[in-house]
Write a structure and sequence with these properties.
The protein is an alpha+beta fold and 178 residues long. It is built from eight helices and five strands. Strand 1 (20-24) and strand 2 form a beta hairpin. The radius of gyration is 16 Å and the shape is globular. Bound molecules: flavin mononucleotide. Residues 24-112 form the PAS fold domain.
Length: 178
């Protein structure tokens, strides 16, 4: 069994025009995935529909990242992140992702929508260093300490999570894409 770091080396890069989209119900079960989702995830529609989105979860991803995601979208806010996913072929693909709540005509949240595109080099490199630290904290002190590490980092830098992530993606203009 390959370690998370070994899996990172087996990487597939997104193209400039790649747009991986998916929809989930309120629990994170997949209700829709577009052609790019099928292509990069390497799961057929039959294999991914109604399955938890963790089907493409990568072991390098710290639990804190998903805690922040769910806390944010359940508070009806949008969430941005750099994440790596693992395909059925055990290949890693890094994405810049935006997740938003979807509403019905009564204003009730009925699910979530996500759009992923090619991430900036700066975004992936910075995120990798942060995730390495979070994984270590989670191993030694648990999830709460890991989330607190992120919150302290944002507080010290006087920036919100989404501002921080969007800023890193904008660096693609000078530093290029992954
Ligand atoms: C719209 C939406 C898209 C998501 N996309 C991903 C994704 O691409 N990769 C991923 O690992 N988790 C994704 N998640 C988060 C998963 O639901 C889940 O929280 C995560 O994979 C951690 O699962 P685990 O707690 O079972 O390890 C998404 C959630 C939502 C609501």
């Amino acid at each position: 069994m390959k370690s998370a770091l070994e899996l990172l080396k087996n990487e597939v890069l997104l193209k400039d025009d790649t747009l991986i989209t998916s929809k989930t119900d309120l629990k994170g079960n997949i209700t829709y995935g577009n052609l790019d989702f099928t292509h990069y995830g390497a799961y057929s529609e039959k294999e991914f529909l109604d399955k938890p989105h963790s089907i493409v979860r990568h072991p390098f991803m710290p639990r804190a990242a998903f805690k922040l995601l769910w806390d944010t979208i359940e508070a009806k806010q949008e969430f941005f992140a750099f994440t790596c996913n693992l395909s059925k072929k055990r290949q890693t693909y890094w994405v810049f992702v935006n997740v938003t709540p979807s509403y019905n005509e009564n204003g009730e949240v009925i699910g979530y929508y996500s759009v992923r595109r090619r991430p900036s080099k700066a975004g992936v490199e910075t995120t990798m260093e942060i995730y390495k630290q979070l994984l270590l904290i989670e191993k030694e002190k648990g999830l709460n300490a890991s989330v607190q590490f992120v919150l302290d980092y944002l507080e010290q830098n006087k920036i919100s999570w989404n501002e921080f992530i969007i800023g890193l993606q904008k660096q693609a203009e000078v530093g290029g894409y992954r």
